[in-house]
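Handout, section 3.2

Students often ask what a structure token actually looks like in practice. Rather than define it abstractly, here is a full record for Apetala 3-like protein. The first block is the sequence as you would receive it.
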Amino acid sequence: MARGKIQIKRIENSTNRQVTYSKRRNGLFKKANELAVLCDAKVSIIMFSTTGKLHEYMSPSITTKQMLDQYQKTVGVDIWSTHYERMQEQLRKLKDVNRNLRTEIRQRMGDCLNDLSFEELRGLEHEMTDSITVIRERKNKVITNQIETYKKKLRNVEEIHRNLLHEFDAREEDPQYGLVDNGGDYESVIGFQDGGARNIFALRMNPNHLHHAPADLTTYPLLD
């Protein structure tokens, strides 16, 4: 039984459309390869799917550039010149943008103002005023953050100070209650620098050692 003729129209279902595209593309490339081998023809096929993906077939005996050069020579057009002109036009636009940006920068620094009209100067003034407002807001935020950081550090120093005062008060109340340097610097402890108070701890000393300990002794035996 012969197959019915398929009506050539756009396939609405996207999945079916993609499957059909893939199958027919492979069949087309197969036929192109057969044509190139059997007839020693130079065959080139370039196609894009609905998703923008490129698929191409090129005869093994020729490159894309060679194919395009031969096409230009045969048809009488210059693809490369057109492409070069487009690139040159794009370059000119980029140079104009760069020149305008440099001029705007110089104007914001107080230069190149002679050619500006009153309205342009007024607009520039408003832009500068808005920029100063944003800069000041940012500066105030930075200062506020620094103040908060200093407050936290100050609270830590005050806590260290209170703890150290407590240790000294305990020593005055009990002569056997001493302060021992645990590897820190006494001057830095007294000045509360870098949290130096953590290098000191208090302990009770044996009364027998209070009057006989050497002057440079830094540790004492603890009471049981």
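Discussion prompt for tutorial groups: Strands lie at 44-48, 54-58, 177-181, 200-204. How would you have guessed this from the sequence alone?
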